[in-house]
Amino acid sequence: MPKSLEVNDGSQITIPLRNLIAIIVFVAAMVTGYFATTERIMLLENHMEIMDVHVRQNSEFRVRWPRGELGALPDDAEQNMRLDYVEEHLEQLEMMCGH
Fold first, then answer.
1. Residue 64 near residue 70, CB atoms below 8 Å
2. Where is pLDDT greater, at 82 or 26?
3. Separation between Cα atoms, residue 80 and residue 16, nearest integer Å
4. Burial of 49 (0-12, 13-18, 19+ CB in 10 A)
5. What is the pLDDT of residues 21-62, one digit of tens each?
6. Inter-residue contact 61 to 70 (CB < 8 Å)
7. How far is residue 24's CA from residue 15's CA, in Å, rounded to a whole number?
8. Could you please report the per-residue DSSP string of the chain?
9. How would you classify residue 8: left for phi > 0, otherwise alpha for psi between -120 and 50, otherwise beta?
10. Residue 10 pLDDT > 60
11. Minimal CB count within 10 Å: which of 7, 47, 54, 56?
12. What are phi and psi of 39, to 5 degrees?
């Protein structure tokens, strides 16, 4: 007949030290891996949110810039002034030539 296994608060378990160390190292590696993975996931989610903000801003810019709702660049203003100047002189030349 097999011996009965009695478990109580005075029971002792023996395990080779080599196996105990291996279990501790394995658990430490798993905990480290878990935290590294969750950190990476949070980092990627943060980058995704930042990219989403940039995409929305770019979409808004793409729609509003051609309408002139966001103003004009200083170069655009200078170019417009030069075009106005050229148009005025062209009108004066046309008047002088009689066209």
1. yes
2. 26
3. 86
4. exposed
5. 999 999 999 999 999 999 999 999 999 999 999 999 888 888
6. yes
7. 13
8. -PPP----TT------HHHHHHHHHHHHHHHHHHHHHHHHHHHHHHHHHHHHHHHHHHHHHHHHHHHTTT---HHHHHHHHHHHHHHHHHHHHHHHHT-
9. beta
10. yes
11. 7
12. -65, -45
Q: What is the CA radius of gyration of the chain?
A: 39
Whole-model pTM: value is 0.51
Long-range contacts of 26-35, Cβ-Cβ distance < 8 Å, separation of 24 or more: none
CA dihedral 21, 24, 26, 29 (to 10 degrees): -120
